[in-house]
Amino acid sequence: MVAGDEWARWRRDPPTAEQQRRDVWVGLAVVAGALAMTTLVSNMGAVIFAAPPPLTEQLLWAAAVSAPLVVRRRYPLAVVVAVGVLFIAAQARQTGDNLAPSIALFFAIYSCGAWERNRTAARWGRLAVIGAMFVWLGWNLVATEPSEPLPGAAGPLDPAVAAVIYGVGFNLLFFLSAYFFGNVAWTSARRQAQLERQAAELRESQEANTQGAIVAERVRIARDLHDVVAHHVSVMGVQAGAARRVLESDRELASAALRTVEDTARTAIGELHGLLGVLRSESEGETPPAGLDQVSDLVTSARSAGLEVEHGVYGEPRPVPDGVAVSAYRVVQEALTNVVKHARARRVDVRVRYLDSALEVEVTDDGHGGRGGRGGNGSGFGLLGMRERIAVHGGELEAGPRSRAGYRVRASFPAAREGTS
């Protein structure tokens, strides 16, 4: 309803400079045509009145009736009134030609309907001019003595009655056509404005959607990079620190720790290559770089950092959607990363449960839960990434300190058929 009211109050933009220049040329062309027509009619003696004024005066009247058309779109209401008044005045002077003034009058009525921004004034201005024309026509029909019927006139109607019906019918068709096509032009312009507005709104919506998609993609890439890099860098940091501490006293242990750093770096680079391959690939349905079958690799990496890790799979393993598998893997990865970085734990329990209605992954430790990056003092970016991943699949995340000691992260993904997301 609001939109309808808005368009009911719509006003057409004023004519452009190019349109105004075109009106000048059109108006001058009509003036030239009126002068030529008046001259030809006078020379042929085909005047509509018995005693027309001198040719010079007739030419002036023809130019005066047509000249206002040069500003027909700039001042449409004033033009239709001026042309109407001058038309009747020229008729009162009994000028010889009626065709060119009629064309000018048609253009004026049409332009008022198509361009007058005040629609009430446009309607009543045109009706007033049309009404005045019919009053003038009626006065002429009454005041003028009936002419002799043309030779060969025949039919059931009296020639005078037939002339009246013909004159009224012709003028009705003439004026109603000008009125109707003016309204059609106005409606067409309004519809075009509506289409342009809708197109602009659609472009804005598409731009907003595109921007939103870009932001979402950036967040996803940042989350993936965080998940891939943070875990391996944490393990590398722990192993490098261990190697530094025992470098002088136990070179064999330091060498083993450095080999773990080297292997972890290679694994991180491999995962980064896989991630970049997925991001660059244009094909859909490409296999994700990680999944539940690689959780054991995370367990092995955590053990190499000095943790005692128990890994258990409960329930009957079944295929899960690729997106769920990746997200479950990343939850375990992030949870183990937090344990290595912040928990100061000794034991970690990693469980994967295939339930009838859900897939669950759970990571618990015996460290100092709720401190450092996992609690209120850290950035929380890892937990934020977990929640975003799980929310995409309609799952739930529970993360917090355990009642006795340690920390627990549990993610639940609703059961879904393979291949869905």
From TrEMBL:
SUPFAM superfamilies: ATPase domain of HSP90 chaperone/DNA topoisomerase II/histidine kinase. Its EC number is 2.7.13.3. GO terms for molecular function: kinase activity. Residues 330-417 form the Histidine kinase domain. InterPro entries: DUF7134, HATPase_C_sf, HATPase_dom, His_kinase_dom, Sensor_HK_TwoCompSys, Sig_transdc_His_kin_sub3_dim/P. Coiled coil: none annotated. It catalyses: ATP + protein L-histidine = ADP + protein N-phospho-L-histidine. It is an enzyme of class 2 (transferase). Keywords: ATP-binding, Kinase, Membrane, Nucleotide-binding, Phosphoprotein, Transferase, Transmembrane, Transmembrane helix, Two-component regulatory system. It comes from the Bacteria. SMART domains: HATPase_c. CDD domains: HATPase_UhpB-NarQ-NarX-like. The chain crosses the membrane at residues 24-51, 75-92, 127-143, 163-182. This is histidine kinase.
